[in-house]
Design goal:
The complex is a heterodimer.
Chain A lengths: L3 H9 L1 H5 L7 H14 L6 H8 L3 H18 L3 E6 L2 E6 L4 H8 L9 H13 L2 E2 H8 L4 H9 L3 E6 L7 E5 L1 H6 L11 H13 L2
Antiparallel strand pairs in A: 1-2, 3-5, 4-5
Helix pairs in contact in A: 3-5, 4-5, 7-9
Chain B lengths: L25 H8 L5 H11 L9 H17 L6 H18 L18 H27 L21 H17 L12 H15 L1 E3 H6 L4 H16 L3 E5 L6 E5 L6
Antiparallel strand pairs in B: 1-3, 2-3
Classes of the chains: A alpha+beta, B mainly alpha.
Chain lengths: 204, 264
Amino acid sequence: MTEPETDEITTEQPEEIISQAPARSAATVMAIAEAIIFVSDEPITSKTLGEIIGEDKQTVQAAVEELQKEYEERSGGLQIREIAGGWQLATRTEYHEEIRKFLKTRPSAKLSLAALETLSVIAYKQPVTVPEILEIRGVQSASAIKTLLEKRLIVTKGHKETVGRPMQYGTSKDFLIQFGLNDLSDLPSIEDFEDLTITALDQQ
Amino acid sequence: MEPQQQLEQFVFDFNKEQPQIVAGSSDELKIKLGEFAGPLDLLLYLIKQEQANIFDIPIAKITDEYLKYVKLMKSLDIAVAADFVVMAATLIEIKSKMLLPRDPAAASDAEEFEDPRKELVDQLLEYEKFKSAAQMLYERSTVEQAVFKRGTIESDDNNAEISATVFDLLTVFQKIVLRHKEEVLLEIEREEISLADMIKALRKRIFAELELNLLTFFEEFHTRRELVTAFIAVLEIVRTEEVKLVQRATFGDIFLKKVEPASS
């Protein structure tokens, strides 16, 4: 993709142009990024967007952030979110009732308390083995782990090199997507819950 | 949803908190009781019910309540999970330890005296953190369910890289075996290849060619024995996670592909 105007400008300002002239205007980059985010099934990273558009990652990142701001300011029915390390176009939470009415769907089955607890231990302690989960929860978690594996919320992370080589588990990309997280650091620190716990119990 | 009379003798109010005994059938009871995610969950519930301080658990009282609950589960024909029984034993042990007078010779210094409840309290506090985290995850998923993404746009790539299952593998395998049956065999005695050698050879080929059509691979073998060895080698190599199975189109050929080192 050679840009015809490159040659023209080169004659005027040679030094600047050698270090890659912006091939497209910022508005065009935003528009293309928006279009691709729209057709993408999964959250799409700035890196991938950059490769397609032919711009570096930072340019695209800035463009999408600008786009995100535009969506915010417009307060329309859609939003651009950063999920699982990528960008995603989605509806705003406020309109879920009307959307459900149209789609005629109900919220999908929730995870059981046991599955949620197991998931929270795995999310915070990964990679973690079954005996380690048992230690924290005080109860066998085999069926919860099976459910989480079936729902692809967790994945196996190889064996732990210890007696019996137990399988280790960690959370998956689907986990990030289903819980609306950009990455694991989006989770509040587990120590924050500790404070909550103690104050809650002390007040009794 | 009629309240069950026999339950009223128990101190805890099941209708107030999350775990509830609702209907008559013992199946449903099991589900509702199951909402205590484990013995620690039940214990925390009882401690809160008693409005007790977690750092100073009235162990005798809580043990009694706990045992009553386990008895209730039994009387309702619910299989009491082994972990609940283990906790009951732990509680009784702590209770008896606390009844025993302290050995004056062993711990003259009050500071050195370890509260028999300490380990349990630590465990409860640790558990409660993750219980709160579970609550947070629950809230997050609820919010997330109110957000909708665009549906899938049809494209050829939508089906790419469907992980093939063991059943897909077996189907391929059966195909090959069938094909062999049809051939007139003129078997020549030859050296059998061991599984270890087969795996080694297979790994070498996948790493060299990056991608290997399973069908082509199986076709290279002529005896049933070799085929079985090859099949086990495929299962083994996939299990060890160096290689994955890829099926690009529904009913399409299955490929063995080298896994790129995970970037995560």
